[in-house]
Amino acid sequence: MHILILGATGRVGSKVLTTALQEGHHVTALVRTPDKIKHQHEHLTIIQGNVLELQDLRRAIRGAEAVISALNTDGGTTLSEYVPLLIDAMMEEGVQRIITVGTAGILQSRTEPEKFRYQSNESKRKSTRAAEEHERVYQLLQQSTLDWTIVCPTYLPDGERVGNYRVERDVLPEGGSKISVGDTAEFTYRQLTDHQFVNSRVGISY
Predict the structure, then answer these.
(1) Euclidean distance between CA atoms 144 and 87, whole angstroms
(2) Which of 54, 124, 134, 163 has the most CB atoms at less than 10 Å from its CB?
(3) What is the mean pLDDT of residues 133-142?
(4) CATH of the domain at 163
(5) What is the signed CA dihedral for 37, 179, 186, 111, rounded to 10 degrees?
(6) Please, are residues 102 and 71 in contact by the beta-carbon 8 Å criterion?
(7) b/e map 168-204, b = 16+ CB within 10 Å
(8) Are the beta carbons of 31 and 53 closer than 8 angstroms?
(9) Distances (CA, A) of 163 to 8, 50, 77, 139
């Protein structure tokens, strides 16, 4: 499979990139700073560009069969600004499948089901800015005709794959408090071939 990875230099995206190459996929990575990618691989194409430039997204997505976006919030509005451009580029190129990494804040609250977790008494975060950005991405994908999945990890410490984690559609697994970067990346990558969570948010935790 030919995969476009956005956020390939980040904590989750870099691990997704490693796994995809190890399993024989062709990968294109659109990055601002190519030097941050340490891989050299015959199946890896690195394109220097900006996700906020439609022409760069078009160039990167050409030939891809799926997109994985592990971009983080940057304290600004990059996520909500680039997703409409990405949707347009995907539609133009006929690419249907997208997996993004969000936050558990945009899952439904168990105690107040009409609210997102970040709006409810379940949230311990003082700032809601990042969750609000991820909510905008969720709304944009919902409104699209793409086959999307949003992986929603809770507290995300560095760590390798353990494999013994729980997932649940639309809510965080009960009592979940953390999930490693490695396991989040593994589950995100597996959504390329696992279609049970298409058009869904997925809570993931230990």
Answers:
(1) 7
(2) 134
(3) 97
(4) 3.40.50.720
(5) -120
(6) no
(7) beebbbeebeebbbbbbbbbbbebbeeeebeeebbbb
(8) no
(9) 22, 33, 33, 30
Helix 78-93 vs helix 129-143: angle between axes, to the nearest 10 degrees? Answer: 20
Tell me the mean pLDDT in the region 58-71: 97
Instruction: Please give the residue range of the domain that contains residue 106.
Output: 2-205
Q: At residue 53, does pLDDT exceed 90? A: yes
The pLDDT, as a whole number, for residue 130 is: 92
The count of domains in the chain is 1
